[in-house]
Structures are given as C-alpha cells and as structure tokens.
Automatic annotation (TrEMBL), chains A, B:
Protein's name according to its UniProt entry: DNA-protecting protein DprA
Family annotation (PANTHER family): PROTEIN SMF
Domain of life: Bacteria
UniProt xrefs under SUPFAM superfamilies: MCP/YpsA-like
Amino acid sequence: MTASEADRLARVALASLGEPGDPRMASLVAQLGAPALRDHLLEAPDPDRPAGLDAAEQRMRRDVAVRLASVDPARDLSRAERLGIRFVVPGGDEWPSRLDDLMAAETLHERGGPPLGLWVKGPIRLDELERSVAFVGSRSATTYGTSVAADLAAGVAHAGYAVVSGAAFGVDQAAHRGALAAGGRTVAVLACGVDRAYPTAHKPLLDHLGRHGAVVSELAPGRSPTRVRFLTRNRLIAALTRGTVVVEAAVRSGALNSAGWASRLHRPLMGVPGPVSVAQSEGVHHLVRTGAATLVTTADEVLEMVGASGEHLVTRPRGATTDRDRLPERVRQVLEAVPRRQAAGVESVARTAGIHLIDTQATLSRLERLGFVEQVAHGWRLRATNAGVSPAQTAEIPTMGP
Amino acid sequence: MTASEADRLARVALASLGEPGDPRMASLVAQLGAPALRDHLLEAPDPDRPAGLDAAEQRMRRDVAVRLASVDPARDLSRAERLGIRFVVPGGDEWPSRLDDLMAAETLHERGGPPLGLWVKGPIRLDELERSVAFVGSRSATTYGTSVAADLAAGVAHAGYAVVSGAAFGVDQAAHRGALAAGGRTVAVLACGVDRAYPTAHKPLLDHLGRHGAVVSELAPGRSPTRVRFLTRNRLIAALTRGTVVVEAAVRSGALNSAGWASRLHRPLMGVPGPVSVAQSEGVHHLVRTGAATLVTTADEVLEMVGASGEHLVTRPRGATTDRDRLPERVRQVLEAVPRRQAAGVESVARTAGIHLIDTQATLSRLERLGFVEQVAHGWRLRATNAGVSPAQTAEIPTMGP
C-alpha cells in the first residue's frame, strides 16, 4: 500500500468519527498525518495504566478505538467507486487548493476546519473550480429571485466560471438551471452522501449533475442530512469558490450562514437587491447596508468582483449623452436661454442666461457654428436638429456630479 | 435704512446679476459685504482711465453697472411681500445655518456657492429645518418607487423630521404627499420663482405647500426654470437637510446630481434598492454598489442615518428564534440526531450525531430535563411540543454566523 493510499484510507476512517469541520481533528491530522493519528486512536488506553486520563476520558478513548476498529475504509472506497464516486484528498492532484484557506486561524471556527476529504460524483474535477462563483439564497425564493438567480448564474457560467450551490429548492435550483441553460458547468455541494437525493424532488437534477456536472460532499455515501451538516456544508460552498452571491435571503436564513463563511474567508460577498417590501430580500439588504456584501445587479458586476484585477472590466452603465453635455457650462447656460421656437434678441438671451452681453454674443456665434442655434430676423432660436439626443457622440463624458 | 436692510437690498440686486451659486460672487460678498460690493460694481470704470482693464473687461464692467442700476430691489421686495413671499438672508434669524457649509472649500464648485438669500412662501421657517431629510428620485418613477417614497417620507415626517424635495412628478410629488398624509412638514425647493408653478400640473400641490408647508427658491419671483437652475437648486436640497434619500434614479438622472451634492457636503446619502431589472433603480444601485450611498429600506433606517448618535436606534430585523438556537452547538447536534417519531437507541443517536456515546447519553438526559426529548421503550425521540418555534424566549441571541 502506498503512502497516499494509506492516507486516503485513514481519512475515510477518521471522517467516520464525528461531524465535519472539527478544527481539532484538522489540526491533529496536520500535525501527525492521518495514518499516524488513526493508529494512535486505535490504541485504546490500557485501563490498568491510566497515563493521567480520568475514567470518563478513558471511556471516551475506548469508544473512539472501538468505533475506528469497526469501520472498513477500503470497503467503503470500493463501494463508492462502484457507484461512480471518488474520494478526493489534500495532496491529491484533484484537491481544490482554495479549501486550504479553511486552515487559516481566522476560520478556525467550531465547525470551520477543512474537510478530511471530499466525495465527488461527476465529470467536473474539483481542481477546475479555480474559477467559480457560489450562489446561495432562499429555498422559498420569489419568482423574481429565481429568475435573477438563473440569469446571473447563466451569465457567470457563460463567461467560463463554474456555478457552485446546494441542491435546495428556490435559488439553488435556479442557479443550477441557469448555468445548465447557458451550457456552463455547475456543481452541487450536499449535506448528505452524494448517493442520496435531498430533497427527493431534486433526484433528477442531482442525477443530471452527477453525469454532467459534479455532486460533492464531505459526508460518506449513505450519510443523511442534518441541520448541523447544512451549516458545515455551507463553509465548503464559500471555500470552494472565488465569491458568493446571495440572491434572496430572509432575515433568518441559511443563506446568511453561507454569507458569513464567505466573509470569514475574505472572499467577495455579493448581494442582489430586491423590492424593500419583500421579506426574502431583507437579509440581503441588511448585508449590503452593513457593508458585509457588495451590491450586484448583473453577471458582469459579479465577474468584476471575483475576476483577477482587470480581467473583467465592467462598462459603467450610462444613459445617452447629448451633445449639449459636451459643452462648457457657461456655453450651455447660454444655449439653455435660447428659445426653441420664437426667436429672442441677444439682450434677452443674455439676461435669461445671466451672462454678460458680449460673452453671450460671442457664445451665440460659437453655438451657431456648432449647429445648435440659428440667427433669424428677430434674434436667435434653437436649431431643431440639435434639440434632441445624439448618442453617437457620447464618448468620455462623465455622467455624475453637477 | 438699517445695515441689515441695506444688506437685504444689496443681495436682491446682486442676485439679479447672474445665475445662482457663483462662488466668486459668494466670496466677494463674504469679503466686502453685499452693500459695498454693489456700490463698487455700480461705479462703471471711466473709459478714459482704464486702470489696467482691457477693452472687453471695461465693456463687461459697464454692462454690470448698467444692469445693477436698472434693478429696484426695494420694489421687488415689496412686490414679493404682497404675494406673501419673504426674503431670508444670512445673518437673519430665519437663516438655516446648514447652508453655510456651501462656503466650505470642498463645495466651491463652479455652481456650489451659497445663495445670496432665499425667497420663501409658507409658514414653515427655514431655521426649523434643522431636522429634515431630502427625498430625490426619478420624475418617471415606477408605482413601486412612488409608493416607497411616500411610505418613507411619511415615516420620517411622523418622527418629526421635515421632508424637503423638489416639485417634480414622481418621487418629489410622492414624498410631499407621504409627508402631508402623515400630518408632517414638507418643503419644496424650486428652480424658478416661488410664485410660479412648474410643472403647471403641480400648482395645487405648490399652493397647498405655500399655505401649510414652504416653497423655497433662490431665484427671485417671476424667474423661470432652466436646466442649469435645476442643477443649482439641487445643491440647496442637499444643503438644507441632514441627509438625502434617493428612491429611484435611472443611470442618467437629475437625482444623481442631488446625490453628488449630498456627498460633497459630507451629508449621509441613502439609496432605496429595487428590482435589478428595472431601469429606474439602476442609478441607485450604482450609488450603493460603489459605496457612495448607504442602502436603506425603512424610515427607521433613514432616521438612524440622519439622527444624532443614539437618537434613533434601529432594532435589527430578526426572525423568530427557536429554543434550539439557545443550546450549545454540541447539545444541538445531539438533538438534531434524535428522530421525531420512531425512537432511536442512544448508540444510534451517538453515531448520527458523531458524538461519543457517554457524551451523548449525558446530553440526552439534559435535553430530557429541558423538555426537548423523551425516553420511550425503544430509546429516545423528540417531544412534539418542543419541535416548534417559541418566539417568546428569543432574547440576546445573534442570528448571524454559523
């Protein structure tokens, strides 16, 4: 057995001991290596030689040893393999290095440790998730929410970024559908074994992802979802991706838990706004309001947030700019004072514009050459052709500020 | 004639010379005083003694002198008085001191100077606007936009803050109506004389404000609105108030100009989000996205932004918190592993929870005492009464974070 094979087997065995994300486990594996830790834990302490352990600790250690001795990781791995499920571990070539950020001190939360390994079903390799975006949000999303989630996911997927989400109703489902509709890559991370469909109504979706995308979990095949597992699962969604988009989330929502992980990992957290009267947007608005999340409204804005610097440049939204706006302010002021139909004398224009007569006279001549105004029998008036918008000449003019 | 009367007359005369907001005018008035500046400008330079002025400058100075000589401020003031319009000047007891911030260096924009005086019609005194909020937004607001504008303005007015806005269709109108419906105070700042109604459809609204609120302008009665005057008017809306709320604003919108003034004056700028697919919210989303504006969704959030520290404390929105959430995580983990109907043995619960047998046993006893679980013939199951939500016991529990 190779060292890496021993490592894989030990990780499967150790993962069976408790819930995912235990930072003490992660820390011990990092110090000792998985096989040595497993061997150490298999040696139940001799009750006649307590080595400083009290009775309760001794019982606990024996419990762990019994448990470890009862698992058969080689059998678990080969069973999984028959189901098309592989086990991806740190150090292996498919390991997504982003997950190592979970080892960083600030993320060493009670359930924030890195996974011992990930069970994966589907053709997308986890090391291909370098460019990926998480979509999280309400299970009971509104039509608006699912529609925006699908649109944004489609845009992100179209740009070559993988979409990563859970498998719940609402935003999760909409994000996967959007990515698939765009012919893009999409990955579901589960809070149960990847051989299980939860919710069961999403079995067809998960089957599809197992064949064309990827279904991922740190829980061994067969394990069931629990509330705690959803919370630890959320850290993986945040950690696997470059940034997390919250589409709709009520004030008390699992999506805000994912959002918290993205912040803790210093990954961009983005929120999609919605009407203020809708409860499903309240949590998102709170994140944006407090500065925890950046407001995003388009896939381009998402890509700008997660892209390498300069990789995605968002064109600032801009209305049509009129020729008028290209004029210096005092010139524009004179132009504003010229009537559209009835001509006005230069004194009248100067008075309305509040600009001295000679300046006004000179400016009117300039405006005439530019085709904005025309001189008729009784004075000056606007030339009809230049009263409108000319979006063709709209370069380089900032639209903000007075 | 008293000194203050001379000052008022000089200010009316000087205001007739050009467009509002000219910082050079403001600066000269600050240095020389309005009467001295007026006297100086009335002395047209002698063409035979050029005093360093070139021909064009001489003509300009003569033009100014002729103009000044032609105005009759005393007549203008008494005409205005007959229309119920007063002229409020710096140093007078009704002068809103916030406007003096326009003298600050950073606001000395091409059109950013303080007004020479304000023409006011209506019972609200300008020095009562110490507690006030500006509402700006699209003339072509959506139904959603006008409804939110009216709601927020009503909430703000109900809390004793005056509402300040323009007199346009859409958000301006909705803000006034909301404030009036709440029995609150509201003020319209115009880009034309306060005796004029623009748009004409808003004559009834402006008449009402002239009797029960206030209509304000730095333009003398009779002057007409121009594009430049709308832009300079916007600085007054921002400068008169503690903060500015942008309800809906397309990318290219006058409301964004007001927003720019609020930022320049270091007054809180707030944006109300909306659906991402609606053009009228794009400008607001851009302000929030770039950090220029803080997202607000309720009147309380607006008041929190503009209130003195601690004056308005917003209760964080919070969903119902269940008893479960009050439990330490490992205890909750055991609770999650207890089935709802079919009882499970302690080994099974321990295995599902991923917690050692003895810990699980102890925790189950604790959960039994707390009334969460019950022991039956074949093991443990949830007590139905505690599976639900108990919002009565929801104090002090943070809702964010895993």
